[in-house]
What does this fold into?
Amino acid sequence: MNYLKHIGKYFIMLKQVFRKPQKWSVFREVLFREIEDLGLKSMGIIMFISFFVGGVVAIQTAMNIESPFIPKYLIGFAAKRSMILEFAPTFMSIILAGKVGSYIASSIGTMRVTEQIDALEVMGINSLNYLILPKIIAALFFYPLLILLAMFLGILGGYYAGILTDLFYSEDYIYGIQLDFDPYYIKYALTKTVVFAFVIATIPAYHGYYVKGGSLEVGRASTQAVVWTSIVIILLNYFLTQMILG
Amino acid sequence: MIEVTDLYKEFNGVPVLKGISTTFEKGKINMIIGQSGSGKTVFLKCLLGLFVPEKGVICFDGRKHTELSIKQQRQLRKEIGMVFQGGALYDSLTVEENIMFPLKMFTKNQPSEMLDRVNAVLKRVNLENVNKKFPAELSGGMQKRVAIARAIVMNPKYLFCDEPNSGLDPITATVIDNLIQEITKEYQMITIINSHDMNSVMEIGEKIVFLKNGVKAWEGTNKDIFKTENEVVVDFVYSSNLFKKVKEAYLNETK
It folds into this structure.
């Protein structure tokens, strides 16, 4: 029953979030700040992880191909497919859920326990709209770009892994990544990313906004936010894959 | 005038405010006092509209708070300034941006006009050269002054303060008290302060409402406190030996 209460409260929150901003110039200012905080500041970690994940995928695939009848270009093909379909959109979203989710929950939670949200409300500002809508827009706008970057760097990581380990030839790898390229998979990955971006911005915001107590509760809310965001991403990933590719 | 009639508020079936009625007048410093857990903060938050009471009427100069549309409530809130216990300054904004925030949200002033206003209120609270500092870089007393500056930047009709000098040393607390008193007279506001600091009560409180277990146990002026025989007030005020001595001195003086 408690879960249903939270789900209901979450949707009621969203109703308040999706209102017209009270002042567009202030909204624009906050939006740019959020793009920097949620997007640009996440670029480093995403670039680092995706590059090495791509490398590991290529090495693992190469080491598991023992039969001489399986062509080596399949390494590039497998690295490309796994990066585009799963590692970039889902795995990177889980990383973002941890990094950005905890930041959103703790920053909004701290604002709640230090009465900064009350201060907004007393001024007559719709605090949900002011605090959360720019985060949603920033995530929806920026995360697809981050995921595209992750796809590219993951595939590039696989290429360099081949060069460094001599497990496969770069020509085979390049042939493999060009083989049977279907742009629909990019569309599928970006569709998932947009949904995950929404989840990453809103679930932690919900946990932070409704926190009660002090710093300990803010910490708990932050952990809860990351856990629930990850669970929802994994579940949605399953359903979206069924719906789009099934 | 703010008129409160028969105000009830409960949380999960537990009554916190039980039928409070009182009035707060213009140009006066009104203080809500009482022990911790007596319902002071809930009462203040009901007045501010942060909590919706189960029963009762709150009337701001003839406007019934509970009957206002959302638009009218927003308009009313623009007339309210609030100083929170911890200041509630926005950590990510500088002092200047904190004070300018309500102006940016609710006025169409040019940036230069807004900056002039910010500097004027900062000067009024005796703070200078702090525009570009972040709240974390300021002392507790300075943060309170910035919070007061932010509260008065829109020329409010009503000023609410939740324990404005808690956590401050006695000298800074007196400075903050005096500042609130001066501003109240200057702007002719209705100021309502939630406090359990008896020094403040005696220094600046013109009307005092005493709450006990969610009920108004007593109301009067700071002078009346010395004369009252109300047991609840006597127990609270004279829990400190200092005040027993102050009372004796006061009564000897007025004999």
Notes: The interface with chain B takes residues 22-23, 25-26, 33, 110-111, 114-116, 118-119, 121-125 of chain A (CB under 8 Å). The mean pLDDT of chain A is 93. The first helix of chain A runs from residue 2 to 17. The radius of gyration of chain A is 21 Å.
